[in-house]
C-alpha cells in the first residue's frame, strides 16, 4: 500500500529539515536501511534511511526544499500503485517559518468561525493527520458545526491508510512519560523539538530541556547514549575538518550543543526576535545605598549582598509601577501579583536565572539568604523548575567584571530586565558649577515594547533611580 | 547448592513428591520402561513400580482423561505429554473437564493434576512439532500455567504444581532439559504466581519466560556493552501473571519489551503488552514492544527457523526502538 514518508527528527533539537540531496530517484526501488536522502538539520547533514523495502513513487519535497518534522516528503509504495488520493491530500510542505496556524484550520473556510482565542491557539498547533487535516478540538468542532463546516474526525477514518499517533488537541506527538515529566518540570512541551518517530517528544527531549534550565545535567545513560548518537555526525565532521587543517594554527573545533546550551539559545532568540526591545539608561549615585549596606552589615556574620538590595529596590519600584511586572500572553497582558525577581548567575556550563519569589514582602536579609541558597543549589545538583521558572522581572549585574554599562535580553515571561554596571568613581558637575567625585553606576532597563511603552519604562526607571540614590524614600 | 540439569531437577521434584505422597503417580508415553522420552523420569519405574509409573498407549485424549478422572477420585496424577504439540488431542479433557470441575460443581470437586511436557520450538522438528501452546492454556480460566526458565525453578515449581489443589499445565522445553543450573540442596518450593527478577536494570524492562529467557538475558548483556541497563523479569507463571511486579518495573524504567516464544496473535505476550500499556500508560516513553515467534508455521530450514524465532538480535533491536536509539526507527510511522 502506498503511503507518505514524513520528515523525521534526525537530531534531538531538529524542528525542520532541508533536503540536501535525494539519493534515490523517483521510480527507483530501495531496501530497508538504504540511504534515501541527505537532510540538512539545524546542526548537521544527516542521513535519512529507508524504513523498509519499497519504491520511491513520488518526491514531494525536492532538493533544497524545507519541511517541518511530520510533513510529507515523498510517497513510497509498490510499482504502479495509484497515488492520486495521496497526492491530492498531500499538503505541500511548507517552510516552518510559514504561519502554521493559517494552514488548514477551520478559519480558512469561507465562513468565519468566531472561536475563542484559546481554542484558536489550540487548533493552530494541533498535529496534522494523514490527510493533512487537523485534529479538531471538541471546542473547535462545536464552534464549527453551526456554521456548516465539517471537521475531519480526530480519529482515523477509513481513507487514512496508516495511523499516526493520536494526540490530545493542541499538543505535539509526545509519549505519556514525556508529558508527565514536562508537567513535573514545568516545561511547556509545545516548545520542545521531538526526536522520536514523527517528531514525537520523548523523555530525553524533555529532560534535555529541563536540564538546560536547571543547570548541571543529570541525564541517565540512555539519554546519554542518544546524545552520543546524535552528535556522532558532528564529531565525524569535526575530525574531518581537523584532518584537512594544515599549518600551525589549531584546527577548527565543532562543539556539539548541550541541551542547556540549546535551550538558552532558543529561549533568548525567541525573546530577542519576538519581543521588540528598547533600552533606557540612567546613571545613579550609589553612595547612600553603599552606606546603607555598610551600616546594615556592621556586626553581621554574613554580609548582605548588594544584589539583594537591588532586588529589593526593584521590587519597591515595581510596587509603584505594577505594569512592569507583566507578561505578554499574545491575546492579553498578564499583570502578576507577586514580584518574582530572577538574578542572572553565570555558571561554567552556562547561565541560570534563580528566582526569589514575592520580593515585595521580603526584607533584604531574607532575599539574600534565598539568593545564596539558590546559587549554591545551582552550583551543586542543579535548580528545580520552581527555582528558575516564571520570573516577572530579571536583574543582570556585570559590575563586578568592571563592565560600565550594557544591555541585556529580556528573560521570558517577564517584560523587563535591568542591567547593572559597575559603581565607578566619576567626576560630576554639581548645581553650583563645582565638580565632585561620586560613585555612579549605570542602570540600563530593557523593556518589551508590547507591554511597556517608553514613557512608562522611563517612569519606572526614575522611581528606581530615586530609591537607589535615597533608599529611605521606599518608606514613603 | 548442587549444579544439575533441568532434566535432573524435574526428576528430583517428581521423586521427592512421589516419596512424600503416595497419591502422586506419573503416566504418559514412554515414562516407565524407556525412562522417559527425555529421561526426566529416569529411575522412577524401578523405584516406585508400574502402579505409580504407568506407560500409556499413544492416545493423549484417553490417558489425559484417565488422569483427570483419577484426580477427581482423589489421586495426584502427573500426566506427561511427549510434547504439547500432541496435547492438542487432549484439549477437551483439559479445558472442558479439568479446568471446569471446581467451578461447575460449586467447589465440591477439584482436579489436582499436573499436565507436563516440552513446548515450543527445538531444532528442525518441522511445523507440527515446533509449536508453543502457552497461550492456548493461559487463555483458560480454571487452569494455572507454569513455565520455568531455570533448573531451580523447574524443581521448585514442579513441586508446587504437584501439591496444588487445581489443574496446572507445566511447560518445559526440549532444548532446556540439558541446561544446567544451581538447585538448592534442601527441599524448596517455588510459589506459583510469582515472577523473578532475573537481572536488575533501570533503562528498560524485558519480560520473558521459559527458553526465551536466555535470549532476553543474552540481549541484556549486549545492551550492557552499550551502556544500557536492561531489567529482565522471568515471568515463571503465565497464569496467574505476576502483573504488579511487571508494572512496578515498567513504571520505573518507562520502556518495556515483552518476549514470547509463541505466535504474536492473542498470546500471553500480546496480553502482557496490553496490560503494561494500560497500567503503565502514564509512565511509558515508548510503545510496548513485543518480540514473539514470527506469525508463520515454523519453517524446517534451519536458517529460516532461526529467523522466525524471537532471538537476542530481535530483542536488542526492540530495546533500541523502545529507547529511540535504533537507526531508521523514526520512519516506521
Summarize the structure.
Chain A is an alpha+beta fold.
Radius of gyration of chain A: 27 Å
- The percent range for strand residues of chain A is 15-25%
CATH topology assignment of the largest domain in chain A? Chloramphenicol Acetyltransferase
CATH class of the largest domain in chain A: Alpha Beta
Oligomer: heterodimer
Write down the overall geometry of chain B: globular
| Total of helices of chain B | 13
Low-confidence stretches of chain A: 92-168, 216-245
CATH architecture annotation of the largest domain in chain A: 2-Layer Sandwich
Fraction in beta strands of chain B:
15-25%
- What sequence of helices (H) and strands (E) makes up the elements of chain B? EHEHEHEHHHEHEHEEEEHEEHEHEHH
Integer average pLDDT of chain A: 78
Tally of discrete structural domains of chain B: 2
Task: Give a count of the beta strands of chain B, DSSP E runs of length 2 or more.
Answer: 14
Biggest sheet statistics of chain B: 7 strands, mixed
Q: Please count the beta strands of chain A (DSSP E, at least 2 residues each).
A: 19
Protein model, in words:
The complex is a heterodimer of chains A (476) and B (333). Chain A is of the alpha+beta class. Chain A folds into three domains: 3-147, OB fold (Dihydrolipoamide Acetyltransferase, E2P); 172-242 and 252-274, Irregular (Dihydrolipoamide Transferase); 276-475, Chloramphenicol acetyltransferase-like domain (Chloramphenicol Acetyltransferase, 2-Layer Sandwich). Chain A has helices at 84-89, 117-124, 138-144, 176-185, 203-214, 221-244, 259-274, 287-297, 306-320, 364-379, 385-388, 454-469; strands at 3-6, 16-22, 29-30, 35-40, 45-49, 54-59, 66-68, 72-77, 277-285, 326-328, 333-335, 341-343, 345-347, 350-352, 355-356, 393-397, 416-420, 424-429, 435-448. In chain A, the strands form five sheets. In chain A, strands 9, 12, 15, 16, 17, 18 and 19 form a seven-stranded mixed β-sheet that branches. Chain A has a four-stranded antiparallel β-sheet with strand order 1-8-6-3, with no helix packed on it. In chain A, α4 packs parallel to α5, α9 (306-320) crosses α10 and α9 packs across α12. Residues 92-168 and 216-245 of chain A have low confidence and may be disordered. Chain B has 333 residues and is an alpha/beta fold. Chain B folds into two domains: 2-183, Rossmann fold (3-Layer(aba) Sandwich); 196-326, Rossmann fold, CATH 3.40.50. Helices cover 37% and strands 18% of the residues of chain B. Chain B is built from 13 helices and 14 strands. Chain B has helices at residues 6-20, 44-48, 60-72, 84-87, 91-98, 101-104, 134-138, 151-163, 212-225, 243-253, 268-279, 302-308, 312-322, and strands spanning 2-5, 24-28, 53-55, 76-80, 114-118, 144-146, 168-172, 180-183, 196-199, 204-208, 230-234, 237-239, 256-260, 289-292. In chain B, the strands form three sheets. In chain B, strands 3-2-4-5-7-6-12 form a seven-stranded mixed β-sheet, sandwiched between helices. In chain B, β6 (144-146), α8 (151-163) and β7 (168-172) form a beta-alpha-beta unit. In chain B, α10 (243-253) crosses α11 (268-279). Chain B is globular and about 60 Å long. Residues 328-333 of chain B have low confidence and may be disordered.
